[in-house]
Amino acid sequence: MKVPVKVDGRELALSNLDKVLYPDYGFTKAEVIDYYTRIAPVLLPHLAGRPLTVKRFPNGVTGQSFFEKNAPEHTPGWVRRVNLPAPGSTKNRESIDFAVVGDLPTLVYYANLAALELHVPQWRVDDDGQALPPDTLVFDLDPGPPATIVECCRVALLLRDVLKSEGLVAVPKTSGNKGMQLYADWDRREEPSAFAKRLAQLLEKERPNEIVSVMARKARPGKVFIDWSQNNPAKTTVAPYSLRAREQPTVSTPLLWKEVEGCERPEELVFTAPDVLARVENRGDLFSRA
Questions:
Q1: What is the CATH classification number for the domain harbouring 196?
Q2: Is pLDDT at 12 greater than 90 in this prediction?
Q3: Are 116 and 259 part of one and the same domain?
Q4: Contact between 180 and 124 (Cβ < 8 Å)
Q5: pLDDT of 158-181, one tens digit each?
Q6: Final residue of a domain: which of 121, 145, 169?
Q7: Do 13 and 78 reside in the same domain of the chain?
Q8: Locate the DNA ligase D polymerase domain: which residues (predicted)?
Q9: How would DSSP label each residue in the chain?
Q10: Mean per-residue pLDDT for 73-91?
């Protein structure tokens, strides 16, 4: 059954609103759409101008999922699309029509497609749809079991200090999964992946029993992997305030540094959609670097 709605003047047909997308939590598609609608004022600025990659879960988080970069032909004409080169495309495309989420109707459209996860690169496009240089530096901190986000927090504090010594201000968020990320505005002083790799290797050298900068899984048990490669222009990172496809509707959640400093148990930094809506109401957008 489809329900016609009007969102900021755009007509959409919402479907299967009672479908449970998070079975263990009883969280429905209607609640997913409601979350994205209510979080939009703080989410949209972080999506603006960034080509979108979504991870869709038509039958919920326990069903099959797929990444979608190319906006298919049936995408509404009012959704902004930009055609960009696609080197290394798994479907041998020379270019891809990416959607760019700049308004609430587009966000609701994707929520209705069960696009639970929203991923974006560290660069934007201009008004003509041309790619701009990276404006954001990101470090993805991934704990190798038995390490957890608690260990990630310790590494985040070290990384914050190194970035500060480089004149960069770091902003933390959870991944909504098991790790966390640090972001900083990027001034393009050098190639961002090379810069991030250098800092990751510096910390690995200082703390070899706690930190690893190489991707090989055999090197990671009990350590925190500082993934500097997310700065590759072809890669994306989960957007702040995006849902994640976990057992419960967790969110990639911006943090206060005092929360990072005081974290003693992993569950302290697990936030669901209702939690995040309440946090934003009380604290605003902690990820704003304006």
A1: 3.30.70.3300
A2: yes
A3: no
A4: no
A5: 999 999 999 999 999 999 999 999
A6: 121
A7: yes
A8: 28-287
A9: -EEEEEETTEEEEEE-TT-EEETTTTEEHHHHHHHHHHHHHHHHHHHTT-B-EEEE-TT-TTS--EEE-B--TTS-TTS-EEEEE-TT-TT--SEEEEEB--SHHHHHHHHHTTEEEEEE-S--B-TTSPBPPP-EEEEEEEEPTT--HHHHHHHHHHHHHHHHHTT---EEEE-SSS-EEEEEE---SS-HHHHHHHHHHHHHHH-TTTEE-S--GGG-TTSEEEE-GGGSTT--EEPTT-B--SSS-BB--B--HHHHHH--SGGGG--BHHHHHHHHHHH--TT---
A10: 86
Contacts of 151 (CB under 8 A, 6+ apart): 143, 210, 223, 224
Tell me what the mean pLDDT of segment 208-218 comes to: 89
CATH of residue 34's domain is: 3.90.920.10
In the structure encoding, which two tokens stand for residue 246, read together?
């976990």
- Quick one: CA torsion of 179, 183, 188, 192, rounded to 10 degrees? 0
| pLDDT, position 218 | 78
Residue 92 pLDDT greater than 90, yes or no: no
Per the domain annotation, does 128 fall within a domain? Answer: no
Q: Which of 233, 245, 264 is nearest to 115 (CA)?
A: 245
Kindly report the pTM of this predicted structure. Answer: 0.96
**How far is residue 105 CA from its own chain's centroid?**
20
The parent domain of residue 15 ranges over 2-121
Task: Assess whether 202 and 256 both reside in one domain.
Answer: yes
- The Cα 235–Cα 171 span in angstroms is 20
